[in-house]
Specification:
- One of its GO terms (biological process) is lipoprotein transport.
- Keywords: Lipid-binding, Protein transport, Transport.
- One of its GO terms (cellular component) is cilium.
- GO terms for molecular function: lipid binding.
- This is GMP phosphodiesterase delta subunit domain-containing protein.
- The protein is mainly β.
- The protein has one domain: Coagulation Factor XIII, Chain A, domain 1 (Distorted Sandwich).
- The chain has helices at about 10, 60-65, 70-75, 150-160; strands at about 35-40, 50-55, 80, 90-100, 105-120, 120-135, 135-145, 165-175, 175-185.
- The protein has a five-stranded mixed sheet. Strands 2-1-4-7 form a four-stranded antiparallel sheet, with no helix packed on it.
- The longest helix is centred in the last third of the chain and has 9 residues, at about 150-160.
- The radius of gyration is 17 Å and the shape is globular.
- The two termini are about 30 Å apart.
Length: about 200
């Protein structure tokens, strides 16, 4: 893990391929930011495409997590999505995130940069600012993602190569990287089973 490197928002906005490793240690999350629920829906139909929720009481503390093996850290920071092929043709999706700030420190200038790649080619990039979050608070954030128009050749290649579409999500507080997560995407789920 590249734990000693100071990574800036400007740097990650220049990345042209997914990172080979996580760019900050789990312990960089000194604000104890936790994600409780994440929902993705199609903006045209309102249909929920993905919904995952967990009880805040079930999440171990950052010091506890720090004692776990590195392989467990990687697993906790990685998610695998399986969407139906029609997801690639959506024009816009809504994303709703519920997260907690579980420390005594306020979170100023909380920013997420998310970069999506297929085979080391950037296909979309998102840059969101959550703003200010008070200590010991639960917060809800919702945004609309305009999806890129992909050619039929690209869509077919992405469908035929599950988990070769990868995203890096970088979370900054006052321009300091405090969290880095990864996601892998497959687009071969049955259409009738859109909620994973």
């Amino acid at each position: 893990m590249a734990a000693n490197i100071q990574v800036t928002p400007e740097q990650v906005l220049q990345f042209s391929a997914p990172t080979s490793e996580f760019l900050c240690p789990f312990t960089a999350n000194t604000y104890n930011i936790e994600f409780y629920r994440f929902t993705i829906r199609d903006m045209e139909t309102g249909k929920v495409m993905f919904d995952v929720e967990r009880n805040p009481e079930d999440y171990p503390s950052i010091p506890t997590i720090a004692q776990l093996p590195e392989e467990v850290h990687r697993t906790m920071r990685t998610i695998y999505y399986n969407f139906p092929p029609s997801m690639l043709r959506r024009r816009a999706i809504g994303a709703k995130l519920v997260f907690g700030i579980n420390s005594d420190f306020p979170v100023r200038n909380f920013r997420m940069i998310e970069r999506h790649y297929f085979r080391d080619t950037l296909i979309k990039s998102f840059d969101f600012t959550f703003g200010f979050c008070i200590p010991h608070s639960t917060n809800t954030w919702e945004a609309i993602y305009d999806m890129p128009a992909l050619s039929e050749d690209w869509i077919r290649a992405i469908i035929d190569n599950p988990n070769e579409t990868v995203s890096d999500s970088f979370y900054f507080v006052e321009n300091k990287l405090v969290m880095h997560n990864k996601a892998f995407y497959a687009y071969d789920a049955p259409e009738e089973n859109a909620v994973i």
